[in-house]
Specification:
The complex is a heterodimer of chains A (112) and B (118). Chain A is mainly β. Helix content of chain A is 0%, strand content 58%. Chain A has strands at residues 4-7, 10-14, 19-25, 29-37, 43-49, 55-58, 61-66, 71-76, 85-93, 101-102, 106-111. In chain A, the strands form two sheets. In chain A, strands 2, 4, 5, 9, 10 and 11 form a six-stranded mixed sheet that branches. In chain A, strands 1-3-8-7-6 form a five-stranded antiparallel sheet, with no helix packed on it. In chain A, strand 9 and strand 10 (101-102) form a beta hairpin. The radius of gyration of chain A is 13 Å and the shape is globular. With 118 residues, chain B is mainly β. Helices cover 0% and strands 48% of the residues of chain B. Chain B has no helices and eleven strands. Chain B has strands at 5-7, 10-13, 19-24, 31-37, 43-50, 53-56, 65-69, 75-79, 88-95, 108-109, 113-117. In chain B, the strands form two sheets. In chain B, strands 2, 4, 5, 6, 9, 10 and 11 form a seven-stranded mixed sheet that branches. In chain B, strands 1-3-8-7 form a four-stranded antiparallel sheet, with no helix packed on it. Classes of the chains: A mainly beta (112), B mainly beta (118). The A-B interface holds A 1, 4, 6, 30-31, 33, 35, 40-45, 48, 50, 88, 90, 92, 96-105 and B 4, 33, 35, 40-45, 48, 55-56, 59, 91, 93, 98-101, 103-112.
């Protein structure tokens, strides 16, 4: 969806390195969800951010919401093979009804 | 089961045939969502149920697609006269309350049904 852009589309990172994935909205955000998708496992909820400046962490994954930029960044510290997968952001936009708008996903590969 | 269950997990069908995809949400979850995910793409919203009602059917791509939910539980997504462009993974999610405007409510996703139309 052009309303929600994720970058990069794919990322190959050496194990142990840090990385950042971005999710940018073209409209005002009410809330933003981060999910991780592994083949055959469906989508796994990571965290939800609602307030500008809010930052949440889940193990070595930290996400922040920049309300002014209408953007969220997801940062992984000291990446591990278990972090590999597709990361999806979903946004609750101020003018949306009943649904989240989803980004196209970022495919993360961790090189040993 | 404890999670959202979808069946079948894989379905190969011939072009022109009808298919039914089933979703068993988590018990007690009032909100149920259907999404479609084409290869390499994000989630495409299809339909949302609150209880047994579908306040938003805007995402259904054509009149070949329909969905129903009964007993505030099981939902069925039906695709009639399947076309090759219908090939995708169809994901179902449920949540205790609607995702929008509620904050801090996560959706629980099933593992999806991979539909291949040949």
């Amino acid at each position: 969806s052009q309303e929600l852009e994720q970058s990069p589309q794919s990322l190959i990172v050496q194990e142990g390195k840090n990385l950042t994935i971005n999710c940018t909205s073209s409209k005002t955000l009410y809330g933003l969800y981060w999910y991780k998708q592994k083949y055959g496992e469906g989508l796994i909820f990571l965290m939800m951010l609602q307030k500008g400046g809010e930052e949440k962490s889940h193990e070595k994954i930290t996400a922040k919401l920049d309300e002014k930029k209408q953007q969220s960044s997801l940062h992984i510290t000291a990446s591990q093979p278990s972090h590999a997968g597709i990361y999806l952001c979903g946004a609750d936009l101020m003018d949306s009804n009943y649904q989240l708008i989803w980004g196209a996903g970022t495919k993360l590969i961790i090189k040993p | 089961g404890a999670g959202v269950s979808q069946s079948p997990s894989n379905k190969v069908t011939e072009k022109g045939k009808d298919v039914e995809l089933r979703c068993d949400p988590i018990s007690g979850h009032t909100a149920l969502y259907w999404y479609r995910q084409r290869l390499g793409q994000g989630l495409e919203f299809l339909i949302y149920f609150q209880g047994n009602s579908a306040p938003d059917k805007s995402g259904l791509p054509s009149d070949r697609f329909s969905a129903e939910r009964t007993g505030e539980s099981v939902s069925t997504l039906t695709i009639q006269r399947t076309q090759q462009e219908d090939s995708a993974v169809y994901l179902c999610a449920s949540s205790p309350q609607p995702l929008y405007r509620t904050g801090n409510t996560e959706a629980f996703f099933g593992q999806g049904t991979r539909l291949t139309v040949v």
